[in-house]
Specification:
By secondary structure, this protein is α+β, with helices and mostly antiparallel strands. The protein has 16 helices and 17 strands. Strands 1, 2, 3, 6, 7, 8, 15 and 16 form an eight-stranded mixed sheet that branches. The protein has a four-stranded antiparallel sheet with strand order 11-13-9-14, covered by helices on one side. It has a three-stranded antiparallel sheet with strand order 4-5-17. The radius of gyration is 26 Å and the shape is globular.
């Protein structure tokens, strides 16, 4: 009896200690959001709106088949920028790289300070043939109506090009003098990989020994209802982007008549391999940028969610299980597998001699292309299936503790004071990955507040941006320049 009482007492003491420790962790969780400092200047709103509207009207479309690109339209767009931003083109140095990508250099007072780079792209994706009639306003009209600016590129990413140049033009009019050099770099082929644009800019600057404190590109945005337990909109700054790989699974062997099939056909074996991969999946792990995201948003969560994330050392398996229930959050913590193409057979009564499948994978930082190939081969367990993997590794992971990240976070808070600003892992690609070669850190953030519907419009029908969002973007870019100017 005494032994049982002692056991119960010990268990009760452990439970009490557990409650004390976990409650302490929850109640002492401090915010990681800086206090906002509101912008007090004024912007020439009419000029800015008119300039973005006109910029959208240039059909600077990138095609996978580069021979289809109308580079004369790109030349006209560049001339338009020269006319629209006279102070920028009078006081900054402009260099055209590879004919159509642009590098503006704003010289600062102290050459010893590492420069900061802001980058965007002015090429856009095509409008899918046959969908033009579904647009409320013509896709290259630049129509301004109902408080919105309509057209392809309004969000991705002429808003960045025009927003940055409007910010610089305004700062020049105020007599602003930078302490460090600033570079504003605009690629012309981001939508098809950036090999002729951003990559060439990087090679050009690298040959001159230019190194950046940080580079900021497009990427994450401020999104409503993004994180469970957080009522405020959450702005996410990409500190890394996933790698993108294509895996081909193929098998060759004798075919034959369908009336006498083998127990395991070529189609069946490849199908079985895909089924095993989808059932197994890559292991999930809440670490790196995904973990950073929740460390930044946890202090702003409702009490129950805050309790869970403040005590991740206990609840991590539960958190990971919850995150795996939705594709968007699952992609935050594991390399993803998406079969996209299956090829086999030509005749209904003939067994194909070859079957193949294409799988698109998005790689977590830390998972290499070789890791992916090895995982597929181990999971498939079929030595006759040939596995080929090609693609790009995940980018490096940038710091969330440096003044570089804090300058971007502070700038976002200055404009969007109710938003929670946090790091995250970007699933799509951007030009930022090219700048990893010459920058201490690279970040990805589009300074606009969006809904899930807005996100779907970026490469889709009815792309548009609200005038308020666009003006806020200009203010943000001014804030980034000023915040970066204050730091070492």
């Amino acid at each position: 009896m005494k032994k049982m009482k002692f056991t119960l007492l010990a268990l009760g003491s452990l439970l009490l200690l557990f409650i004390i420790v976990t409650m302490f962790n929850t109640l002492t969780l401090e915010t990681r959001q800086p206090a906002p400092a509101h912008y007090t200047g004024t912007i020439k709103e009419d000029h800015a709106i008119d300039t973005l509207s006109k910029a959208i009207q240039f059909q600077t479309i990138s095609y996978q088949d580069r021979s289809k690109m109308n580079l004369a339209e790109f030349d006209r767009f560049i001339s338009f920028l020269e006319q629209s931003f006279p102070a920028v083109h009078d006081q900054l140095e402009l260099e055209k790289v590879n004919g159509h990508s642009l590098v503006y250099k704003w010289k600062g007072r102290f050459a010893a300070k590492l420069p900061v780079g802001l980058t965007s792209h002015y090429d856009v994706v095509p409008v899918l043939e046959g969908t033009e009639k579904n647009w409320e306003q013509p896709p290259f009209s630049g129509t301004v109506a109902d408080g919105k600016i309509w057209g392809r590129g309004s969000l991705d990413d002429k808003i960045g090009v025009i927003g940055i140049l409007e910010a610089v033009e305004h700062l020049l009019s105020e007599g602003f003098k930078p302490e460090r050099d600033f570079y504003f770099m605009f690629g012309h082929d981001e939508e098809i990989g950036g090999d002729d644009g951003a990559s060439m800019i990087v090679s050009t600057l690298n040959d001159r020994g230019v190194k950046f404190a940080f580079v900021l590109d497009e990427g994450g945005a401020i999104v409503e209802n993004m994180v469970p337990g957080v009522t405020q909109p959450v702005g996410v700054i990409g500190v890394s982007e996933k790698g993108s790989a294509t895996a081909e699974l193929s098998i060759e062997g004798s075919g034959g008549h369908s009336s006498q099939p083998k127990d395991r056909t070529n189609i069946g074996r490849v199908a079985s391999a895909i089924a095993k991969l989808e059932e197994t999946q890559f292991p999930a792990d809440l670490q790196g940028p995904g973990e950073d995201l929740f460390e930044f948003v946890a202090p702003e969560m409702s009490f129950g969610m805050k309790y869970v994330f403040a005590n991740k050392f206990v609840f991590e398996p539960v958190i990971e299980k919850i995150l795996l229930q939705q594709p968007a959050s699952a992609a935050l913590i594991r390399t993803t597998i998406a079969p996209t193409i299956f090829q086999a057979g030509e005749q209904y009564n003939a067994l194909p001699e070859k079957a193949s499948a294409i799988i698109n994978l998005r790689l977590m930082p830390g998972d290499s292309l070789e890791d992916v190939r090895a995982f597929i081969e181990k999971t498939v367990e079929d030595e006759e299936i040939l596995v080929k993997v090609d693609g790009s590794e995940a980018s490096g992971v940038s710091s969330v503790d440096s003044w570089h990240f804090k300058a971007i976070q502070q700038s976002a808070r200055n404009v969007y004071d109710e938003a929670v600003i946090a790091p995250y892992l970007m699933f799509a690609g951007s030009d930022a990955k090219h700048y990893d070669r010459i920058a201490e850190n690279t970040y990805r953030f589009l300074p606009v507040q969006l809904t899930s519907d807005d996100l779907n419009r970026m490469h889709g029908t009815n792309e548009h941006v609200s005038i308020e969002n666009f003006l806020n973007a200009i203010q943000f870019y001014m804030e980034v320049i000023k915040e970066s100017n204050r730091n070492e």
